[in-house]
């Protein structure tokens, strides 16, 4: 408790005014107001999933979205740990009751990009996030794996040619959470470069991949589309693709912002 002694020269009304001014100053200093730069930075982020419907999304060939649906919660089913119990509401994007549906693509096309993505899988399930529809970061239940491979959660998936795989990149460390727990990817991707004639002159790169707050990839080159990519060619821009046919998966808080990398 603060004890205040009133001196003769300072009356109660004067003291009240001084205290009011001090409180107002303290309140102003505590409540931070975003600067113009911060507001501009926030505005550059594009929300890919609005939490209410599938506006801005499509299949590879048309505007249909398969069995992808919006939910409120997706806890693991108590009677079957390999499935979700899908509850109505908003905010979560899930690939249907069966967890087997078409891949989902953004209508937006990106080049160099920073992305934030949150995801959850039940036990043993599998999905993937393809930058430009071509370069996959693996989504998998890898909880407890001691020595992760390219095929574990956060891995940059292998390429495939002539009946065999090559060039997969395992995460530096496995930081996967238990099935049913939400996880995060924060990614900086540098698109491949092309000359004026359309010839590729530089490969794409994952400049940084952060999984649940931990750096798992840095400056990893991808020489071409990874296995099961939607497109076999390479271009300067392309969509984000969410793999929907490998098992139950849910996403939320998907957002990207364009950046310019040297």
Please outline what is shown here.
With 262 residues, this protein is mainly beta. It has one domain: Sandwich (Jelly Rolls).
* Residue runs with pLDDT of under 50 for 5 or more positions: 1-10, 14-31
Helix fraction bin: 10-25%
Count the strands?
Answer: 19
- Class derived from helix and strand content: mainly beta
Q: Can you summarize the main beta sheet?
A: 8 strands, antiparallel
Distance between the termini: 58 Å
Number of helices: 2
Task: Explain how this protein is built.
The longest helix is centred in the N-terminal third of the chain and has 19 residues, at about 10-30. This protein has helices at about 10-30, 35-45, and strands at about 45, 55-60, 70-75, 75, 80-85, 85-95, 105, 115-120, 125-130, 135-140, 160, 165, 185-190, 195, 200, 205-210, 215-220, 240, 250-260. Strands 1, 3, 6, 8, 13, 16, 17 and 19 form an 8-stranded antiparallel beta sheet that branches. The chain has about 260 residues and is mostly beta strands. It has a single domain (about 40-260), classed as Exo-inulinase, domain 1 (Jelly Rolls). A hairpin with a 5-residue loop joins strand 14 and strand 15. The chain has 2 helices and 19 strands.
